[in-house]
Write a structure and sequence with these properties.
The chain is of the alpha/beta class. It has twelve helices and eight strands.
């Protein structure tokens, strides 16, 4: 790929219209806004992008829109993971055809595959494409954990298995990927409250849902870590914390979407049902947090 797989990657939201169809115009505006804010990569159809609520055709169309709108200004890395290896491989091949720079592959979910089965799952995607493949570990939501030894086996066998996004929230687990995997393997933190700590311990970047709302803050954390400016990095990490903690105000992933609506960045902050809107009290708290952060 032309652009390095590092830095701040945004799991970009999937805006919906009132009828819950994808709002492509709003998605294109989000792409432009995030790139203008200095992010390094875009991660369509990820968790914050509600991949679990999208049809296969919708995922493919979202890949097309984001690649087209990015126009090489930031790298595009769609999530192509699915419950079955068959669907994941289909999406991986489509992403390569669509012009993506890399793919991310979330573990299966609902089922409970063994580590050997997970090895075969990720190996199938690596064999199906020539793109860099970033595994995606999010055991809190999938109930499936791909362990550091399994990733080390995969990375040793498949050169295009380029890294992992770890959303476990367990920094010791994240750093085991750094320790055990080969040189050049890139570990990304997927827990927004740990970005600075992860960057200063060998991680290559972050996949941060909060960067939809506060991209300058998140990019600032990355820049501070690169510059060795601990005071600034820690200050920005503290400034970001209230937004990440606010995720508890509603059912994931509606908080980020309603924040974007409050900020005027998307016209409708709805998530797909059954996820509902914030109640009045929770929305008021969210607005207060955004105002305190200078975002609304």
């Amino acid at each position: 790929m032309g652009k390095p797989l590092q830095g701040i990657i945004v799991p970009i939201v999937t805006p919906f219209k009132a009828d819950e169809t994808v709002d492509e115009a709003a998605l294109r505006r989000m792409v432009d806004h995030l790139i203008a804010s200095g992010v390094h990569g875009l991660f369509p159809a990820g968790s914050q992008g509600e991949f679990f609520a999208l049809t296969v055709d919708e995922k493919k169309r979202i890949m097309d829109v984001v690649v087209d709108q990015a126009r090489g200004r930031a790298f595009v890395m769609p999530n192509t993971g699915a419950v079955t290896t068959r669907e994941s491989v289909e999406l991986a091949r489509y992403a390569q055809q669509a012009g993506a720079d890399a793919i991310s592959v979330i573990t299966p979910y609902f089922i409970s595959p063994s580590q050997d089965e997970l090895y075969g799952f990720f190996a199938a995607s690596a064999e199906a494409v020539s793109l860099p493949v970033l595994a995606y570990n999010n055991p809190g939501r999938t109930a499936v954990n791909v362990t550091p030894p399994t990733m080390a086996r995969l990375a040793a066998k498949y050169p295009n298995i380029a890294g992992i996004k770890d959303s476990s929230g367990d920094l010791s687990n994240t750093l085991e990927y750094v320790r055990l995997c080969p040189p050049g393997f890139r570990t990304f933190i997927g827990r927004d409250t740990l970005i600075y700590a992860a960057l200063t311990n060998g991680c290559a970047g972050a996949v941060a849902a909060t960067a939809n709302v506060a991209p300058q803050i998140v990019v600032g954390i990355y820049d501070a870590a690169l510059a060795g400016d601990a005071a600034r990095g820690q200050a920005l990490q503290r400034a970001l914390a209230p937004l990440r903690i606010a995720f508890n105000l509603g059912t994931f992933p509606v908080v980020v979407k309603e924040a974007l609506e409050v900020m005027g960045l998307i016209p409708d902050g709805r998530a797909r049902a059954p996820v509902g809107p914030l109640d009045a009290a929770s929305r008021a708290k969210l607005v207060g947090i955004l105002k305190e952060m200078g975002l609304a």
